[in-house]
Amino acid sequence: MRLWGRATFIRRRMLCLWLLLLGFALVTLALSDLFNRDWGHSDQRPGPPQRPVQRIPSAPDLEIILDSRDPALELGVDLAPLKSLQEDQLLFVPSTQGTKNPPQRRGSYKVLLPGAGKDATASPTHGEMGKAVRLHLEGTERDVELAAVQKYGFNEVVSTRISLHRRLPETRHPECLGEKYSESLPSASVVICFHDEAWSTLLRTVHSVLDTAPKQYLQEVLLVDDLSQHGHLKSVLSEYVTHLDGVRLIRSTKRLGVGGCRALGAARAAGEVLMFIDSHCECQKGWLEPLLERVAQDRTRVVSPIMDVIDWQTFQYNATQWPVRGVFDWRLDFHWESNPQMQDKGPDSAVQPVRSPALGGGVVAIDKHFFQSVGAYDPGMLLWGAEQIELSIRVWSCGGSMEVVPCSRVAHLDRHHLPYRLPDQEQLQRNKIRIADTWMDAYRKIFYRRDTLAHFIRQSESPNIAERLRLKRSLGCRNFHWYLTTVYPQLYIPQDRPALSGELYNVGTGSCADYPRGQGPQGGAMNVAPCSGTGSQHCDLNSELEVRWGPMGALCLDAKGETVVLSPCPTHRPSTSRLQWKFIKLSGQLVHQESQLCLEAVKEGGSSQSSPREVSTHTNTGSLFLRPCTHHPRQQWHFEQLVAPKGA
């Protein structure tokens, strides 16, 4: 009896186990059927997924859906470069919107990337993604946002809550609303290159173009994938694009960088005008027609809209005040600057394009034939950085022109930082070296004195620019002196005299004169800080007795009372005595001509020992003051020129 009872007990346990397994199987089938109905093509209205399956922020595992025919599956789970194809082969994903027989849903695999072993699932829809985050992510919403910022360089959590079709407020000048454009404008191919872009910002860019560009002028939108590794940019994006009319997806099989990726898109474009747009932009209504009009009037003209700003934290739209133009400094860094000279030229100036020494890379329109004939993007400019400056100098020098069109506006997302690490942190300097050696002639010495890292790289390796120099000769391009005097005469040309230029080193503190970042182009208080040795603290005492500061040379050493500050330098008039200084080499004193007082550095938490009466009032951190001249070490200065390039 005891054995019979034990056997009955075992049979009951086995029966319970089988019932549990059966129940689990039924639930799994039900969920699978629900999932397939949500994702499958319905007979009523096929449509793209609203949100791709992707990693939940800070979760250790990632479950993605990959197409069974997706070439990425040949690579294993590390999503490495597509070695199954030749480097010059491309994958095209054309749109099938409007076709009678849309492609049937193909099979899919679930690929679980290695992790800590915990389940991490995410829903394909926008609303369910937010629900998954709330269910699976530990910590506060602030932690989620910080993780998103670290991954993408902006608050992607906020971005996902914003419609892909949001409308921007009208910020064009009223005169623009009445502008009439030709009915026979050229066709445009919009080229959007991306590398590991967030889903929401990429798709908002695409829909922004589709929602605002007139169909009669928009030939196509080319999405060019520069070897992205994120799962949501694989088969899910391919599936999405098939439902967008006039959109094609091109995938590069190797990492090309900004210039190479855009050149690839240009080679496959069918439109007459190439419209290069970054993958995190939003277009205003009426942005396309003014750009096409200007290019149609002169096919050698390269144009840009006014670039408004989207805040990287809040995604708030901020309109840029007109007039603006693009410029660069002697470190070959690009800036947008206001152009006050244009503000008092009458009401027509509100709609008149402004000639610009350079254009940013965010949005650029250029005739396709002119783009190819002038040399496209320099293929030696790798990955990211300064390619827009090289193109700007080349266009102007080789027969073209550049301008900003005020009746066209496009908003660009202002990243907090690059979302990916460059494989070589010195690559940006190498790109700038190519610009200096190809286009700047003897003026390149000014660049090397302000970017010492580039100088030392150049000392150990030379760029291969033979092909670009041949292009320069064949196009009959003008020299850089012509560019400075004709196109960009506002750029101050430093004199960089020996012993009167370089880092302004203070003997008493062992630090250098410095201008804190973020204080803006209008100047502000100076301080003392550790000498950087990078050239960023470079200043120049010129023959006008001005101490010009920084890579632009547009700010001059000045005094407000006894506090030493930087102020905008005069442009078309002689310098006043307030901005004039005399350097006494024997004593190392820098004497303010108007007051006949000497420049003195005060260390952090310290005070002037040469003027005890001021101890209680001047305790600023590392500030610079005017004091009665003494032989105190804090009044002793040296101009230390970090590099003196030979033959430059």
Would you tell me the structural class of the helices and strands? alpha+beta
Write down the CATH topology of one domain.
Trefoil (Acidic Fibroblast Growth Factor, subunit A)
Shape: globular
Helix content: 25-40%
Query: Strand percentage, roughly?
Result: 15-25%
Instruction: State mean pLDDT (0 to 100 scale).
Output: 79
Q: Can you give a write-up of this model?
A:
With 648 residues, the chain is an alpha+beta fold. It has a domain at 501-640: Trefoil (Acidic Fibroblast Growth Factor, subunit A) (Trefoil). It is built from 16 helices and 27 strands. Strands 16, 17, 18, 19, 20, 21, 22 and 27 form an 8-stranded antiparallel beta sheet that branches. It has a 6-stranded mixed beta sheet with strand order 2-6-5-4-7-14, sandwiched between helices. A hairpin with a 5-residue loop joins strand 20 (547-549) and strand 21. Mean pLDDT is 79; it is low at 34-91, 98-124 and 606-621.
What's the helix and strand layout?
Layout: H1 2-39, E1 63-67, E2 91-93, E3 108-112, H2 126-136, H3 141-152, H4 156-160, H5 174-177, E4 188-194, H6 199-212, E5 218-225, H7 235-241, E6 247-251, H8 257-268, E7 273-277, E8 281-283, H9 288-297, E9 301-310, E10 317-318, E11 324-328, E12 334-338, E13 354-355, E14 363-367, H10 368-373, H11 387-397, E15 401-413, H12 427-439, H13 444-450, H14 452-460, H15 466-474, H16 480-487, E16 501-506, E17 511-514, E18 527-529, E19 538-541, E20 547-549, E21 555-560, E22 563-568, E23 581-584, E24 589-592, E25 598-601, E26 624-627, E27 637-640
Parallel strand pairs: 4-5, 4-7, 5-6, 9-15
Antiparallel strand pairs: 1-3, 2-6, 7-14, 8-15, 9-10, 11-12, 13-15, 16-17, 16-19, 16-27, 17-18, 19-20, 20-21, 21-22, 23-24, 25-26
